[in-house]
Design a protein that fits this description.
Helices cover 48% and strands 17% of the residues. The chain has 684 residues and is α/β, with parallel strands linked by helices. The structure holds adenosine-5'-triphosphate (ATP) and magnesium ion.
């Protein structure tokens, strides 16, 4: 579904934009000697939709904790209106553990009502024995409050919302901890929907969701009346959801009034302006310095030179406009070459109660395969991966090939890190037989330098934890990787670097990811779980999408044929009907296909097919152009690092300019690439 955020802005224009719900005034916050944010001011108004962005580890989650009152600032103030209610979804929501059922967790939204219920019960019993007037008054007051809060309906309300979010009645009593990440997130969201806070803060919500659930969340948020602050590294999601971007960069908050795409463009403009201001200021400073140099020794001008110097010292310096990006350096190495077959599974069956994951499935992973396992939440992608990794019981056969050395990056890998170890200890425990020096070198590539390796895992940000987990995978030098959602928590730039590293990797891999861009960059085979079987497609993601479309059109044609021959009077086939009769290998979950294909006849279908082909061509062209530019970029980077060039100012400036130009071109093309990708998805 295409969403038009602009329309939404008009509909939900806040009643009073000048009321501030929460915010910072000249706020500074430090962890020990490290400042996260300095003198920042940010006001959040009713109905605003804000995307909070920044590279991994810059302090986004910390800002939310400050807003929620979990941390106190070192200087400045956190402002919150007395009546503002805040709902805060933590990034590490899996660390929230409870024995409660999902119904009980969601009902946590009605803390006050639940408390009143308990008090009423207690007082009721006490009043049977005494006739204490004070207690009687307390009792009637509580009954009144219960009425006002509509407290007698909370069970119904909670059940309704949980049903709305896809939970079945029989699930409601099941313990929260039995559910997967995506479903837990829905339970916590249900709690927030019921709380209806004025300010909803979501820290990387899409990490735990698959595509259909992301779409569900988008629809929900679109109708949300309160203000929303979302931390996310998902560009599409941000573009749809927010109309303001707050960027945390080098301890400052930069505010952009637009969505993510606007931010990208505007940032370039601002950088150019800053660069010009920097150059002008540098000219001015040089001129003044020449003046001082020339006159400071002359008695008649010395005083003047001194005052120029003083003025110069006081000048607020404009920084040079350059983006410092966290460049992690990954290189997945292989120790041994395995045999031709990595792993084969036969007659594989697995079920959880009534839910069947696979039934008599068969599949083979060959050397050189880079497989993406895709499909909706609950289809069993992670389960299948865990079976292959030997972390889950199953019926049937699973055989490893010769010389295979595997490494598994689990979906909740971050949670399996030992919170009390420091970064170096965590790597020492990985059993790589590397010396501390060697481990430090690896950690350096993952941006943990010097004292950082002494940091305890528990204080690391989401992206930093992901980097530790990836470093552990790398030092294993395995020739077969099993990766479950490896891009979770990584910022966009790091995702790109990971995709590049996996592309270069000489081993084989199987991965699960909800990031379409990432899949299209890494996979050469696609696996789907359909009706208990593993269906393999020999080709990359783009080809798979095109194949799916062709199959859908073919089905449609057969169906139309059928209708034309007899049942035309019943009207054009509805989407649901088209899905129901679809070929088995297509699966029943192809929601996107079912809902977006037009049903008005052949002419239109042909047009759509033509449009798709055209897009497909453009997509491929862009892909190869980007590949060429990336190669140019590497050359340009090499040039910048070449001492013959960086020691010569003019040459260096030229090389720098070329580098910037290439980067600009890449980002423009990547924008187009993503747009086309999106259009293709919408058509299919
Ligand atoms: N209690 C703490 N003590 C010391 N340092 C901390 C503590 N908590 C967080 N940090 C550090 O502060 C920095 C900011 O952390 P934060 O979790 O806010 O980052 P983030 O922007 O949310 O990153 P990500 O995108 O990776 O989630 C990180 O370098 C982290 O290691
Ligand atoms: Mg974070």
């Amino acid at each position: 579904m295409k969403v038009h955020p602009q329309i939404y802005i008009i509909l939900t224009l806040p009643r009073n934009i000048y009321i501030m719900l929460a915010g910072f005034q000249d706020l500074t916050f430090e962890f020990g000697a490290r400042a996260i944010v300095e003198e920042a001011t940010w006001h959040i108004h009713p109905g605003e939709r804000i995307g909070l962005i920044g590279f991994n580890g810059t302090g986004k989650s910390t800002l939310l904790k400050l807003l929620a009152g979990e941390y106190l600032p070192n200087a400045g103030t956190v402002e919150r209106s007395r009546t503002t209610t805040i709902g805060y979804l933590h990034q590490d929501l899996l660390s929230f553990d409870t024995q409660e059922s999902i119904l009980q967790v969601a009902m946590g939204a009605f803390e006050r009502v639940v408390q009143i219920q308990k008090d009423i019960e207690r007082l009721g019993i006490e009043l049977e024995q005494t006739e204490d007037e004070k207690k009687l008054i307390e009792y009637t007051d509580l009954l009144h409050e219960m009425d006002v809060l509509d407290g007698y309906n909370i069970d119904h309300k909670t059940e309704d919302v949980l049903h709305g979010l896809g939970f079945k009645q029989e699930d409601l009593g099941r313990p929260y901890k039995e559910f997967s990440g995506g479903w837990r997130m829905r339970v916590l969201l249900a709690k927030m929907i019921l709380m209806q806070p004025d300010l909803l803060m979501l820290d990387e919500p899409t990490n735990h969701l698959d595509l259909p659930s992301i779409e569900w969340l988008e629809k929900y948020l679109l109708h949300y009346q309160g203000a929303v602050v979302i931390v996310s590294h998902d560009k599409y999601f941000l573009d749809r959801m927010v109309n303001k971007i707050v960027e945390l960069y080098q301890r400052r908050l930069n505010i952009y009034t637009g969505n993510y795409s606007y931010y990208e463009k505007e940032k370039l403009v601002r950088m150019e302006m800053q660069q010009r201001a920097f150059e002008n200021q540098q000219d001015f400073i040089r001129q003044q310095e020449r003046f001082i140099e020339r006159f400071k020794a002359k008695a008649s001008k010395a005083a003047q030179a001194q005052s120029v110097q003083k003025r110069l010292d006081k000048i607020e310096r404009v920084e040079e406009a350059s983006i410092e990006r966290p460049n992690i350096r990954m290189n997945f190495n292989v120790d041994k070459t395995p045999g031709k077959i990595i792993c084969s599974i036969q007659n594989l069956s697995k079920r959880f109660g009534d839910i069947e994951i696979v039934n008599g499935a068969k599949a083979e992973i060959e050397r050189g395969d880079k497989i993406a396992l895709i499909g909706a939440n609950g289809k069993g992608k992670s389960t299948l991966l865990r079976i292959i990794a030997g972390r889950e019981d199953f019926e049937g056969e699973r055989n490893w090939g010769h010389n295979v050395e595997e490494s598994f990056y689990a979906q909740h890998q971050l949670e399996s890190l030992n919170l009390n170890y420091n970064v170096l200890e965590e790597l020492q425990m990985a059993g790589s037989k590397k010396t501390d020096m060697e481990l430090r070198t690896v950690l350096g590539c993952f941006l943990f330098s010097g004292d950082d390796v002494d940091k305890k895992i528990k204080v690391l940000s989401g992206g930093e934890k992901a980097r530790v987990a990836l470093a552990k995978t790398i030092i294993s030098k395995s020739n077969f990787l099993m990766l479950d959602e490896p891009t979770n928590h990584l910022d966009m730039h790091s995702v790109d670097l990971l995709a590049e590293a996996l592309d270069k990797y000489e081993g084989s891999l199987i991965l699960v990811s909800h990031d379409r861009y990432f899949i299209s960059k890494t996979a050469n085979k696609i696996w789907e779980i359909v009706d208990g079987q593993v269906v393999e497609f020999k080709g990359g993601y783009t080809e798979w999408v095109a194949w799916k479309e062709r199959m859908a059109l073919k089905e449609k044609a057969i169906e139309k044929d059928g209708e034309a021959q007899g049942t035309r009077h019943e009207g054009q086939g509805k989407d649901g009907k088209a899905q129901g009769t679809r070929h088995e290998a297509q699966g029943k979950d192809s929601k996107a296909q079912g809902t977006s294909l037009p049903t008005e006849g052949w002419g239109k279908e042909r047009e759509i097919e033509k449009a798709k082909k055209k897009l497909q061509r453009q997509f491929e062209e862009l892909e190869s152009k980007i590949a060429v530019l990336k190669a140019d970029k590497t050359k340009a980077e090499d040039a910048l690092a070449d001492p013959r060039i960086y020691s010569d100012k003019t040459k260096f400036q030229e090389a720098e300019k070329t580098y910037q130009q290439i980067n600009g071109q890449i980002s423009t093309l990547e924008n187009q690439y993503e747009k086309i990708f999106e259009e293709l998805m919408n058509l299919g």
